[in-house]
Write a structure and sequence with these properties.
27% helix, eight-stranded mixed sheet, five-stranded mixed sheet, alpha/beta, disordered N terminus, disordered C terminus, Purple Acid Phosphatase, chain A, domain 2
């Protein structure tokens, strides 16, 4: 009885739940990759927006708004926000480490302050950017996690989509005593967020979950760039939780990330599957993924062979 009550409580907290109806069993979405280098005129981003606008997409996700070597000043944030809001498709922003976690003034980190600024500027209401507004539900709607507005979810047909703040710089874990309050608090929020996503997918009998993030939490510890150092591997807890939750999920989980670690065996190989968990690094400037719930494979990267119905999208 107690377990039933807890399950119903989770479901109630997750409502209201905006759902976009898919016209058929197949639909496509786009992912704009994080900029790899400074682009003063934003030419690559403008081109990606124009090309994705011209496609028949359910929505687009920008997986990061700036490169590692660009300024973290408000001016950059405002410039990119203005440009992203010109999209014709509904456009969701998923934050990357370069947007906040790597920001510093000399040797002093400005990561926490910059993340707070991004939350104020980019995640202040319940809608996406772009002309075709998508209504999203934010983790910040829960009083306990009121600051975590960047964690969002939405649904199209029988697939649940969500962003989760997992920066690629070792999940922003710092190898210094007493300096990991941001990491520890975010771990608690992200863990709760993942639990609720899987509960929702299970209760609604969904076919799949798609997570958008910066770092790849599924990279095995032995392939992490931190595995041979004295620094703790910052994705360990997330990796364990995701694998355990996916093992109980009847559908498929796809993790879309920015991590292009060249020594990882899955780098540059499309969607890599391990049981019902797939991971894909999206190389720039943008890529399209088609979902067809009428097929067992479910997810198709644009460069991969797709069934005729999916190709028509």
């Amino acid at each position: 009885m107690k377990k039933v009550f807890l399950l119903l409580s989770c479901v109630l907290i997750l409502q209201p739940f905006w759902v976009a109806a898919a016209e058929s069993s197949a639909f496509s979405f786009g992912i704009i990759a994080k900029p790899l280098k400074a682009d003063p005129n934003d030419e690559a981003l403008r081109e990606s927006l124009a090309e994705s606008d011209a496609d028949n997409l359910a929505f687009v996700v920008a997986n990061g708004i700036k490169s590692n070597n660009e300024s973290c000043a408000d001016a950059i944030y405002k410039e990119r926000k203005t440009l992203l809001d010109t999209a014709k498709n509904g456009l969701i922003v998923s934050v990357a480490a370069s947007d906040w976690a790597l920001c510093a003034n000399g040797k002093r980190s400005e990561s926490f302050e910059r993340l707070s600024r991004l939350r104020d500027m980019y995640f202040s209401d319940e809608f996406s950017f772009g002309d075709s507004k998508i209504q999203v539900a934010r983790q910040s709607a829960m009083p306990k996690f009121r600051t975590y507005a960047e964690n969002m979810r939405w649904r199209v047909g029988d697939v649940l989509f969500a962003t989760i703040n997992l920066p690629a710089n070792n999940n922003n874990y710092l190898n210094a005593a007493g300096r990991n309050s941001e990491y520890e608090d975010r771990q608690i929020a992200n863990s709760d967020w993942l639990k609720r996503l899987f509960v929702m997918a299970k209760v609604n009998k969904l076919n799949g979950i798609v997570l958008f993030c910066d770092g790849n939490p599924l990279i095995p510890a032995e392939h992490s760039i931190f595995s041979s150092s004295n620094k703790r591997e910052g994705f360990t807890d997330m990796r364990k939780q995701i694998i355990a939750a996916a093992a109980k999920f009847q559908g498929k989980l796809l993790i879309v990330h920015n991590d292009d670690t060249d020594h990882h065996p899955s780098a540059g190989k499309g969607i890599i599957w391990n049981n019902n968990i797939g991971t894909v690094h999206v190389d720039g400037p943008w890529r399209k993924i088609t979902i067809d719930t009428a097929t067992p494979k479910l997810f198709f990267l644009a460069s991969q062979p797709m069934p005729s119905q999916a190709r028509a999208q």
